[in-house]
Amino acid sequence: MKKSYTGAIYIIIAAVLWGLFPSFSRILYANGISVTHAVAGRAIVAGGIYLVWGCFAGVFKGLKIKDYLFLTFYGCCSILGTYIFYSLSIKYLSAAMAAMLLYTAPAFVIISNRIFYHEKITRVKLIALAATFIGSCLVVRVYDISSLVLNWQGILFGILSGISYSMLTVIGRKAISRGHTALQNTFIPAISIGLMFCIAVPPWTIPIPSPVVAVCYLAVGVIGSVLPYFFYLRGLSTGIDGAAASILANIEPVMATIFGVLIFRDSIELLQVVGIIIVLFGAAVPSLAEKYTKTQ
């Protein structure tokens, strides 16, 4: 029981750190940093840390060229898209809207698994899809046409971030079937994306006009990527139930919303709050159903 509580604390810490990421990104934008440079900073910092960490953890042992090519493809479809589209949605939307659109990912996982793996869409999955759709409509204020017209770019980027984020699970399933470890599935794609950005946006060309900006570059890489994953892994290593871990991680968009309100004075309407709750419910339903089935 003590291990479960410890694991839950680690998972919650990871979710809080992930929830902080949009705030650091918005500080970068407020200081005149472009999305390209913000994303490059995050990718390079995270990729560099994963490279050093991976060397000590023996992540590269036994991998062949075809493995690197596949994991790079995996990173381009999931991590690269998530980095870019989520950062763009944060630029155009509030933290709450951007985070909740990212959390449409479980719905896209259900749809993609049906297309690529021929999995049945069960009643539980339909409930999750419906909840995600209804909740997302409320979060983006579909009831306010003027808001949709004003924010259509951000909403589009938010949906694309959810699709990209879903690929972590969809393509990750294929990666696991190829015998790659969890660390390899995480480290190699991130390192590959970091190397790509080093070529496309050399580190010395990234503007650092002030110490605040420098700290934020480090924060989006360390707090937005590396540390949350470290704590999430530590939580899973305690033996906490995987379904419980995924449910606890769902507080990430809630934390992003709270930080947005506290730090940037984001306004949020009652119907948006209802939408957030519905989306979180939709994200948690499959895990809750799985956990209930296992206990029977």
Q: What fraction of the residues are assigned to beta strands by DSSP?
A: under 5%
Q: State the major sheet.
A: none
Distance between the amino and carboxyl termini: 20 Å
Provide the structure class.
mainly alpha
List the helices and strands in order. Answer: HHHHHHHHHHHH
Count of DSSP strands: 0
- Summarize the amount of helix as a percent range: over 70%
Q: What is the count of DSSP helices, taking H or I runs of 4+ residues?
A: 12
Average pLDDT value? 87
* Unreliable residue stretches: none
The Cα radius of gyration reads 19 Å
Instruction: Label the overall shape.
Output: globular
Can you describe this structure?
- This protein has helices spanning 2-30, 35-57, 65-92, 95-102, 105-117, 123-139, 145-177, 182-200, 211-237, 242-249, 252-264, 270-295.
- It has 296 residues and is mainly alpha-helical.
- The longest helix has 33 residues, at 145-177.
Short description:
With 296 residues, this protein is mostly helical.
Topology:
Layout (H helix, E strand, L loop, with lengths): L1 H29 L4 H23 L7 H28 L2 H8 L2 H13 L5 H17 L5 H33 L4 H19 L10 H27 L4 H8 L2 H13 L5 H26 L1
Helix pairs in contact: 1-9, 1-10, 1-11, 2-3, 2-8, 2-9, 3-4, 3-7, 3-8, 4-7, 4-11, 5-7, 6-12, 10-12
